[in-house]
């Protein structure tokens, strides 16, 4: 299965579906599509790895039928290997799991890539970068959490930015560096300057009346900061 690739240039603003209006999920996806979104970021929580529950592969599979947008599943779950095939079958284009859940992630990363899916590895704010550094050759995307995972609407943690820069400097230029948590017009410039190119945005999109304006404004700020 060939991989679907992300845009090669410019910052990527990825709406976090954790913050959407679930009563109008289909309408919100169509609205994001019209507003120019390229990626939907699906936060999957199991109530064990993180202290909250969200949705699973069945919801993603159901929405996959109504849009061609790029889907990234962010698996905040204790046993990503057990459920990996469900998210591949659901039509995810990228699957990201946590190094805290799989301390030796290389075989799982290779399994994701073998399925024609982009392989991502996430790291929590308090986790040292050493484990990620050891497997950079097998990773398409490194997701740095800038809040403690599990809940939306948290405040951005600027102390993770040196971690973003360290990973960016060590990784292959083609490796995507993402950041997730508290990303807004007030924080995106610092994250971009540190080396992030993929920005997961929840409240800063869904709490706005104009999704297109919210995404375009943040992309402009990120572009200016990385120039």
Q: What's the structural domain tally? A: 1
CATH architecture: Alpha-Beta Barrel
Q: Which secondary-structure class do the elements indicate? A: alpha/beta
Share in β-strands: 15-25%
C-alpha Rg, in Å? 16 Å
Uncertain ranges: none
CATH superfamily: Aldolase class I
What report would you give on this structure?
There is one protein chain. This protein has nine helices and eight strands. With 227 residues, the protein is α/β, with parallel strands linked by helices. The protein has one domain (12-226): TIM Barrel (Alpha-Beta Barrel), CATH 3.20.20. An eight-stranded parallel β-sheet has the order 1-8-7-6-5-4-3-2. The relative contact order is 0.16. The mean pLDDT is 93.
In short:
The protein has helices at 25-34, 57-64, 80-89, 106-114, 130-133, 161-170, 188-194, 203-206, 211-226, and strands at 12-15, 39-45, 70-76, 94-98, 118-123, 141-145, 176-180, 198-201.
Task: Describe the secondary-structure layout.
Elements: E1 12-15, H1 25-34, E2 39-45, H2 57-64, E3 70-76, H3 80-89, E4 94-98, H4 106-114, E5 118-123, H5 130-133, E6 141-145, H6 161-170, E7 176-180, H7 188-194, E8 198-201, H8 203-206, H9 211-226
Parallel strand pairs: 1-8, 2-3, 3-4, 4-5, 5-6, 6-7, 7-8
Q: Characteristics of this structure?
A:
227 residues; alpha/beta; TIM Barrel; 9 helices; 8 strands
């Amino acid at each position: 299965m060939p991989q679907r690739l992300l845009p090669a240039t410019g910052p990527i603003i990825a709406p976090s579906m954790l913050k959407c209006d679930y009563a109008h999920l289909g309408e919100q996806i169509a609205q994001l599509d019209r507003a120019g979104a390229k990626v939907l970021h699906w936060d999957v929580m199991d109530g064990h790895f993180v202290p909250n529950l969200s949705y699973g592969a069945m919801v993603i599979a159901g929405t996959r039928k109504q849009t061609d947008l790029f889907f990234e599943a962010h698996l905040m779950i204790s046993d990503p290997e057990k459920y990996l095939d469900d998210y591949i079958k659901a039509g995810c284009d990228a699957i990201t799991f946590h190094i805290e859940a799989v301390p030796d992630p290389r075989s799982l990363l290779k399994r994701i890539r073998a399925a024609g899916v982009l392989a991502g590895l996430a790291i929590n704010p308090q986790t040292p970068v050493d484990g990620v550094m050891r497997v950079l050759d097998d990773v398409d995307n490194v997701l740095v959490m800038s809040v403690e995972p599990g809940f939306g609407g948290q405040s951005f943690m600027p102390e993770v930015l040196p971690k973003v820069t360290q990973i960016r400097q060590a990784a292959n230029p083609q490796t995507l560096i993402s950041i997730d948590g508290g990303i807004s017009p007030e924080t995106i410039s610092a994250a971009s300057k540190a080396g992030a190119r993929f920005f997961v945005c929840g409240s800063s999109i869904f709490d706005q009346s104009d999704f297109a304006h919210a995404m375009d404004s943040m992309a402009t700020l990120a572009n200016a900061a990385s120039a």
